[in-house]
Amino acid sequence: MVNKLKRFLIGRPMKSTELEGEKLSKLKALAVLSSDALSSVAYGTEQILIVLMAAGFAAVWYSIPISIAVLGLLTILVLSYRQTIFSYPSGGGAYIVAKDNLGTSTGLIAGGSLLVDYILTVAVSSSAGTDAITSAFPELHDHRVLIALVMIMFLTLMNLRGITESASFLAIPVYLFVLSIFVLIISGTMKYALGGGHAEVPELGAAVSNISLFLLLKAFSSGCSALTGVEAVSNAIPNFRQPAERNAAKTLLMMGLILGIMFIGISLLAYWYGITPQMKETVVSQIAEATFGRGLIYYWIQGVTALILFLAANTAYSAFPLLAYMLAKDKFMPNMFMARGDRLGFSNGIIFLGVLSALLVIVFDGHTENLIPLYAVGVFIPFTLSQLGMMVRWLKHKPSGWIGRFAVNTVGMLTTLTITLIFIFTKFSQVWMVFIFLPLVIFLFHRIRSHYRNTADQLRIDLAKDKPVIKGSTIVVPVAGITRVVLHSISYARSLTDNVVAVYVGFDEEDIRKMEQRWEEWNPGVRLITLRSRYRSILRPLYKFIETVEWKTAETDHITILIPQFITRYWWQNILHNQTSLLIRAYLFAHKDIVIATVPFHMNK
Amino acid sequence: MVNKLKRFLIGRPMKSTELEGEKLSKLKALAVLSSDALSSVAYGTEQILIVLMAAGFAAVWYSIPISIAVLGLLTILVLSYRQTIFSYPSGGGAYIVAKDNLGTSTGLIAGGSLLVDYILTVAVSSSAGTDAITSAFPELHDHRVLIALVMIMFLTLMNLRGITESASFLAIPVYLFVLSIFVLIISGTMKYALGGGHAEVPELGAAVSNISLFLLLKAFSSGCSALTGVEAVSNAIPNFRQPAERNAAKTLLMMGLILGIMFIGISLLAYWYGITPQMKETVVSQIAEATFGRGLIYYWIQGVTALILFLAANTAYSAFPLLAYMLAKDKFMPNMFMARGDRLGFSNGIIFLGVLSALLVIVFDGHTENLIPLYAVGVFIPFTLSQLGMMVRWLKHKPSGWIGRFAVNTVGMLTTLTITLIFIFTKFSQVWMVFIFLPLVIFLFHRIRSHYRNTADQLRIDLAKDKPVIKGSTIVVPVAGITRVVLHSISYARSLTDNVVAVYVGFDEEDIRKMEQRWEEWNPGVRLITLRSRYRSILRPLYKFIETVEWKTAETDHITILIPQFITRYWWQNILHNQTSLLIRAYLFAHKDIVIATVPFHMNK
Q: What residues of chain B lie within 8 A of the CB of A470, using their CB?
């Protein structure tokens, strides 16, 4: 039943050898890995304008140079990550690069930061997607949390089905979004060029009285939130078809190009049409309205934008399980994150991500907007560390032409570091949590690794010296009467060794006398020890008896306790049998170093 | 931790031999067993008056002859149950008497009826007690269910502590109630005799125009609800100190006498003071007010009345576990109801009663008043069957003077049968459920018994013929690598038999080749079989392999599978280890008839 439901939801299990077929082509990779980055253009320009408006409408022209600066940063990041891809063809996320060049501790800061960030991505994106839907259909507003949870569940299931299938399905909205924004930019530019929609806007370079460097930096850092998600490609190289690094590098360039054009296009249109951020309407919505009016095309663009925001969460679904896999391989996370599921994805990582982000949505009651700055910091910390790592790498290896590459990474590192610091100083009240969860996550990583190390130490043997030792064997068979189950158990025990002893726990003398008498009559060739329990507990006398046996024979013999267990035909019949054997098993297992053998007795009625 | 809490709540465990000390003296038995019966006087007279008021105020004088009739019935019941006590000194509840004389099926009707009834008693009484409290403190009204549940939990814990201790504790309110009602009756009578408080009341024998026999019978049957609980003493004879039956008989007479005096006293006072039932004030409250005014004594009487109503539930706590024990002894209920707990009470029965009545309170949201008629029918059915049983017994054995005894039981049987029928016909809408739950309970009784019979059949062996058979032994050891755990397991297996085979499930050729190579290097003297799992499942290849082994050796050998299991030092460490061994164990256990031996590996870090 459960199995059938599972098959229906995620499909038939796949062979390990089908893995290569599951890998991504460039075009599909673009769809799977870029929705997070591309969706940022829906709010990037707006973030800049919101900050600038603090200095009045006259300051909006600064959005153009700032957008160009963001574009510059994007270029640096793309070039930098391109270098990473070729240096780390088996997947060069911030964790790997930082660990490799700056040491494990730094790597864990980057990895932990990203792990938490992916969870935030899913929570924030699914809430944002829900907001887009409820803006269009206000009557759904009371069901926000439910809608977000359904979205998360849907994404989780799609990803459990496997990479290729979800890519085919999820690619369409990404392509549609890119297409729509390009149409918007071209139409808007043509309309402006042909003299339509001119607005009174401050000229580029016009003097603004109350502008400050701090404000400009803040605007720049806000605009940088458009760059979250750029790292996804370099993390996911193992998901690409061969030649993986070439394909990944091309995909990254393609994504950077598309993102850059869309971002600067939106910024220019916003400036040309004199658009300012409004409480109730997004900048993209205003541009679309100014270009096409409130017609079919307008609603189409709004719809596709809502969809891409929601799909941004999907990037995290590719990145989180892979990063968890790498951390698990290094023993910083539980082994279970290394296992591939029925459909060859890292199911445990996918499920873990789904559950945690769903919990965040529930705890924040769907209002996850406040997590956005936290989420941006969580991206820029690993950006910085990753580039610092690349700098160290160039210095160490010094391949031909390393100086140029070193320069690229240095500029990138300094910029992202600056942005991180600006985020921390200008939005401390929203990002302080990072200083709590990061140390906590890293502490956990270390605890887990030290447990695995201890386990490995305890389990390790010397193949040359440690060989099996053959000892004697004593088998203890607790009996409650003389039944077929006891007959089975005694037969089994006697087949293994001659040292078999049956134990009977009686509640009064009468009981014990009768049992001894019947045992003598039966005479199964096994000695019966009777114990009297004054407190009506079977466990305690048995436990003491086993301690005595241990004291006598532990050196020379393996001690086994044989516990018969009924397997009833129907589950409800279990409540008709005292579960003493389960109790004995659980208790002895926790307290004693003896082997517990369960002899099943399948009842057929 | 759990153990400490248990000790704090219910006290230290007691030896079986302390059972005699736990038994009840007459005076304590009166308190434990009579609170249900005695508390009925709080509403018995009122029930009669409510029905009579349908014929107008002129009809209230009928309450006196009806009360006398109820008193007559009480006498009959007491005499009848006194006869039962001496005939069944080991406990003569309706179940035993009916089963013994009328056959098992009839006995089960009586037993099932009573079992359900005891659950209703607890639910109804705790709700009624809560009502009494919330009448005094209306601000608690919103917490009715919670208060009732706390009461049930308190009673459950007291009863788990043991009979004597709860008797000492619970006896006081019963004595106080009896004392208070006696003071009320004496004071009220004196006041009336001295000429105070005379009211205009219809004379005894005055003509009433619209009275009918049906109405009078209905009033009588309503008054009979005051007799519920009379059977408690005869069920609980094994709880009495020796000589048990003499003590029980004396306690029964004492209870009957007290109940009779209180009941007729209240009825007379109600008549003398011309009291009619009111929506918001009970008859007892009106009498107390008429006698003492609304002073300290009035509130005292109200308080003690509330307390006794609540304590009425305690009767069920003595009766239910004993009846369940008897039914379990006859295999109609699960064995677990036969086990005495740490404090020598039948803990499972006590807990079962507490849980089910708490569920009833929750389901009915504390409004259990509608269950009262159901509860009365549930008492009068076994009353009738028990007396019918006694009639048959006299006819069968015919001891000296049997005719008089036969007459007592015949009169009793006919009266209780009539009352049962009146209940069913006048209150069918409230009691129809009895025709559903009774057959259901009896069906369950039979299913349980037939399961135990089948089990016994399957387990029974012939001591003379069925002897242990010694066969060969094959031990299968699944291994995941070469570790100390594997060394332990192989050593253990080799100590038992030479037919040991290790099985390794690998995910690819490389894996398998490496493992084979290391095994050869180790050379533990055991053959290694390697299996390839294309779907990354360990369970399925292993299962198939075991089927092959079974096919080859099941006839000649016992097959054992040895499963190593980690026991981590801290519980959270468990999530760091794949629980494959648990999974394998559970799966094989359900599907195969082979012995599963678990080799523990206690980790010390």
A: 491, 494-495
pTM: 0.75
ipTM > 0.90 (yes/no): no
Residue A570 makes CB contacts below 8 A (sequence gap 6+) with none
The model's pLDDT over A450-487, given as tens digits with 9 standing for 90+, comes to 999 988 888 898 888 889 888 999 999 999 889 888 99
Sheet containing strand A472-479, edge to edge, reads A527-532, A500-506, A472-479, A557-567, A595-602, B595-602, B557-567, B472-479, B500-506, B527-532
Distance CA A99, CA A96 (A): 5
Record: contact B576-A452, CB cut-off 8 A: yes
Beta-carbon separation of B567 and A590 below 8 A: yes
Distance from CA of A167 to the nearest CA of B (A): 23
Best of B20, B454, B470 to mutate (most A CBs within 10 Å, chain A) = B470
Q: Could you tell me which residues are beta bridge partners of residue A598?
A: A563, B596
Q: Does residue B389 contact residue B97 with C-beta atoms inside 8 Å?
A: yes
Cα–Cα distance, B93 to A549 (Å, whole number):
48
Tell me phi and psi for residue A468, to 5 degrees. -60, 140
Question: Are B535 and A603 within 8 A, CB to CB?
Answer: no
Measure CB to CB from residue A473 to each of B342, B496, B525 and give the nearest one.
B496
Query: Is B468 in Cβ contact with A525 (below 8 Å)?
Result: yes
pLDDT in tens, A268-298: 999 988 888 876 677 888 888 888 888 888 8
- In angstroms, the first-to-last Cα distance of chain A is 23
What φ, ψ does residue B366 adopt, rounded to 5°? 85, -5
Q: Which of A470, A484, A577 sits opposite B494 (nearest CB)?
A: A470
Positions of E strands within A207-282 = none
The Cα A255–Cα A263 span in angstroms is 12
CA distances from B583 to B375, B501, B515 (A): 48, 21, 23
Distance of CA A169 to the CA centre of its chain: 21
* Cα distance between residue B274 and residue B293, in whole Å: 16
Three-state DSSP at B445 gives helix
